[in-house]
Amino acid sequence: MARDKTIHASHGSSREAQSSGPSKKMSTDHVDRDGNLTLTSAQSREFKSNLQKRAIRATKFYHQDSMDQLGLDNHLRQLFFHIGWHRFLDLSARTYKKPTIEFLSTYARNDIARVLTFKLQGRHHRLKYKKLNKIMGTYDIYNSDIYSHQWTQFKSLPNVEFWTQITSLPKFNPSRQKDPFIMHPCWRIAHRILSASIFARHEPGQINTVELYFLYCMSRHRWSLPDFATFFLDKCDSLRTKTTGDICIGGLITLIGLGMGLQFPASEYVPVDDPPLYLLDCITLMRMELILPHPNLLGHFSWLNHVKDPVYILPNPSLSIFTTNDPETWFLPQDFPDDDDAAVNDDMHVDPDNADSPFEAEDHYDLPIRQLPPPHPAQASGSHFQPSREHFQPQYDYHSHQQPNEPDPAHEFPLDIYSQLASLRLQGNRNTAAIHRIEEQQERTHTYMEDLWYHFRPEDSYPPRGPPPS
Arabidopsis retrotransposon Orf1 C-terminal domain: which residues (predicted)? Predict the structure, then answer.
């Protein structure tokens, strides 16, 4: 049993897999007594020698608590649901140096039979791509012809068009573009999840064509369900053939081991990150310079643009108008800066013909969707900031924060975005378009996400809920 190539890259990853390094090409294929492709001892030693010289960094995983606090969890799950990878968001695992090097230096892939062989904890293992996808919580309906056609179609035109839709930039240069140009927090954090978790890059801020393709697939409901196993192994090929660069894929390898029934006892395995740095929580997002704590609103954050200026506040009710099939909602109104100038400007001119009555102005403080309250200050050093849960456990059962229950006044808090909206109305017609856009969406937004998740959620993923509010 043999094939032309043991290392096979697809979907635009061939450039990564062809990087220079030891063993640019497998010279021979070794077949074990069961007919499985494996590496020779010399090949494994060569890869291991290269990998041991490089730093092993912790893979970062999605953190639901933080995304709930930012008001983004529902929207991010909606995006990943469109490509069938929403279950992956509930997984997390620590990264260990020895299993990472052992897997990367011994695995061999057979893309024709869709079988993977590797060593972990000194034992040989055989894993079908189908089970690998199941371990990662993704679908296994791979069709190489369909994906090849979609990838070719995307590279021809939509990549530039889609990039322009989410950034307003006219051109896309994969070797130079950075994700801070992506304006909407949902798209930008979705890219960070892809680059830091799935593609496991140490510098996740740069965006390449493959990652932009994934974001494009997220914008089109079930247009494509990418094969996790293929992209994961393409990344492994790229990592072990390079001679430089940090290795950040170990958390996914830990998930594979746990999915195969292996254990990683604390007495024998020490994580590479101490203290824990394996979650994309608010602390990590601050280190990535995506957010900063708001100086005046407890539990709120300032969202930073590409020049590190605060542009608006999270959580933000206007995010509730975000829909993946409507590019008009992919830009937050630029008329709502993260400052209090409009609210404290004593010289503001008031046009009585356009000014609200006190009763009308109060309506602007109504929340279009139910938001979770910020954590109590006493919880600042709790699980949100110092997560301490065992690996390979769902972080929490998913519960929508848009519940049909009556709002609890004790849990509501003023959102600066709406006080600024009232101020904008007092300024006259300069921001009429932005004001009308929010007002038109405000009434129908309350039930939009509930309807979406109630009708399209995977039945085996989330606990059943009651019907959406009428």
Answer: 47-215
CA distance 27 to 393: 40
Q: How far is CA 30 from the centre of its chain?
A: 38
Residue with token string 């829909």: 323
The span from the CA of 104 to the CA of 269, in Å, is 17
Q: How far apart are CA 399 and CA 254, in angstroms?
A: 27
Q: Where are the domains of the chain?
A: 14-282
What the block records as the tokens of 174 is 């994969």
CA 48 distance to own-chain centroid = 30
Rounded Cα gap, residues 105 and 100, in angstroms = 9
> Under DSSP, is residue 211 helix (H, G, I), strand (E, B) or coil?
helix
Which residues 6+ apart lie within 8 Å of 236 measured at CB? 103, 104, 107, 249
Decide if 115 contacts 234 (C-beta within 8 A): no
232: Cα within 13 Å, side-chain hemisphere: 26
Q: How far apart are CA 153 and CA 220, in angstroms?
A: 14
CA 76 to chain centre: 7
| Contacting residues for 438 by C-beta, under 8 A, at least 6 apart | 318, 321, 333, 421
Strands 279-280 and 61-62: parallel
Amino acid identity for residue 360 in this structure = E
Which ranges of 27-116 does DSSP label H, i.e. alpha helix?
41-51, 64-70, 73-81, 97-106
CA 386 to chain centre: 20
In angstroms, what is the C-alpha Rg of the chain? Answer: 24
Each residue's pLDDT expressed in tens, for the chain with a length of 470 residues:
433 333 343 333 433 333 333 443 343 455 554 556 667 778 888 888 889 999 999 999 999 999 999 999 999 999 999 888 999 999 999 999 999 999 999 999 998 899 999 999 999 999 999 999 999 999 887 766 666 677 777 777 677 888 888 888 888 877 666 777 888 889 999 999 999 888 888 776 788 888 888 898 888 876 778 889 988 999 999 999 998 889 999 999 999 999 999 999 998 999 999 888 899 999 999 998 899 998 888 889 988 888 888 888 899 876 666 777 777 777 665 444 444 443 334 343 444 444 333 333 333 323 223 333 333 334 333 333 333 333 333 344 333 333 333 333 333 333 334 344 444 444 544 555 655 655 555 444 434 444 444 444 444 444 443 444 44
Q: Quick check: helix, strand or coil at residue 247?
A: strand
Task: Burial-class residue 437 by CB neighbours within 10 Å (0-12, 13-18, 19+).
Answer: middle
**Angle (CA) 137 141 145, round 5°:** 135
